Amino acid sequence: SMPSEMLLKIFSYLDAVSLLCVGCVNKYFYHLANDNGIWLKIYSSCFQPKRTIWKMKSEQTEAVSLGCAALHDRKPGYWKKEYIFKQIAAVKTRVMRLVKPVDPYTGLPRKNKEAMKASGLSWIIVLKDKNGKEHVMEKANISFKDTSVTILWYSRNWPCLDILSTLKLFGVTPLLPDESRAPSKNGPHRRSLIAEYHLANLTESSVAVGADKLVQLFRLNPGLLVGLWKGKNEIAFVMASLHYHQLLERSILGSGTVQYALPPNKPVLDDIDPEYGLHDYNLHLDMHGGSCTYLCGTFKSLFCRKGDIENGYLRLTVVSLKDNTKHLPLIGTVGLSWETDVFKGNVKDCYVMDVTLLDETGKPFWCFSAPVYMELSSKASSLYDYMGHIYTTDYADSEGKVCVELVWLEETKEYFIVNLVLYISTKKVNNWYGTNY
Questions:
Q1: Which residue of 124, 235, 312, 404 sits 20 to 30 Å from the alpha carbon of 322, by its own alpha carbon?
Q2: Taking the CA of residue 85 as centre, how many other CA atoms within 13 Å lie in the half-sphere pointing to its CB?
Q3: Residue 418 in contact with residue 405, Cβ under 8 Å?
Q4: At what angle do helices 4-11 and 36-46 cross, to 10 degrees?
């Protein structure tokens, strides 16, 4: 019953975020909250609107402030849209400036954390049950590594796994980021779909990666770990491993329903003999289990000859059984740490592997972050330099495979990597270079 003039007067004292929230109350408030007079005032406080008039026979220009024409000649909501677009463009410019410097070892932006903070980026998972109802879980814990970020969600009120159909991972950014204050939980924001996972028959369709006394861990590609209470079909926690390569783009530039598509690579002219195959590749490898890092290293000048192509894969040998000078120890007791609001634990022989493979020009060629596990091998050791059990770690996705062979040394209580080989899909290589291996 309050007159619209009085409501407009009240709305004129609101900031942009509050005004957008008020517009969600009902259609009447939405119409009033689109008022050009209010939004022009907000716009002018940040971006002074000017109109430029060019004079004949003069290089000088005259800037004229937009007056009544700015209000009456525009459709309702025009200045609201202009303000939002300008703010988003300003944030993107700030983020792009931060991600421009590149680390020569990883080939990735140096200031990922600063860029994420500038954009106000966070992540959520949305669980959808078979009736179409959505359950939103916000992030509970986050940790940063050299090339990835790990996010852990836990709650006392997970919906029953039996009724769930899908899990969606979203990047969430405030519509109007403000560097001077933390993003409002209930403020206007937008979602960018990163990945979608199907939870039907989870234990049969996913990869089991280990267990302790309390939980069982299952991996869904790409990079998602679901922890179930042991002996029960109930979720204990969900962990996502996100590689920095294209992380900001996937978390910001996608829509709420469609994932961001990576732009195609533009191959450079290569005058190396084509029989030589891949050459001058660099690998940055990080193995960690939460707060602990077990291995972090860079391997340069990797190559693959034509003869190393077999069964649809190109082989890149990083560590060879034959060269014991390059065998690598893992530091610490390998295990993946987890926690909920009540319990904590550590699953032995399970960890997160971050792979960053750069091509000969230094561009990220194949990148992933995924939970993996070590499995006791049935074959006997043929290594004369080591006496201990052989363990293997294998990872595979649509673009390639990683095979790691380790030896457990009982005397020193440590693992040694004695064999590390990357297999790159010929389809991936052909798409990247426009070739036909």
A1: 312
A2: 6
A3: yes
A4: 10
Kind plus residue range of the DSSP H or E element containing 115: helix 112-119
pLDDT in tens, 187-220: 788 899 999 999 988 888 899 999 999 999 999 9
Pure H helices in 350-425: none
* pLDDT value of position 406: 93
**Which pTM value belongs to this model?**
0.84
Q: Three-state DSSP class for 126?
A: strand
What's the full length of the chain, in residues? 437
At 128, list the tokens. 């959808």
Which two structure tokens, joined as six digits, stand for 376?
Answer: 């006791």
Structure token pair of residue 63? 């800037």
* Alpha-carbon span 154 to 328, nearest angstrom: 35
Question: Smallest Cα–Cα separation from 146: which of 107, 120, 116, 119?
Answer: 107
φ, ψ of residue 211 to 5 degrees: the values are -160, 160
Which residues share a beta bridge with 113?
none
Q: What token pair was written down for 166?
A: 């899908």
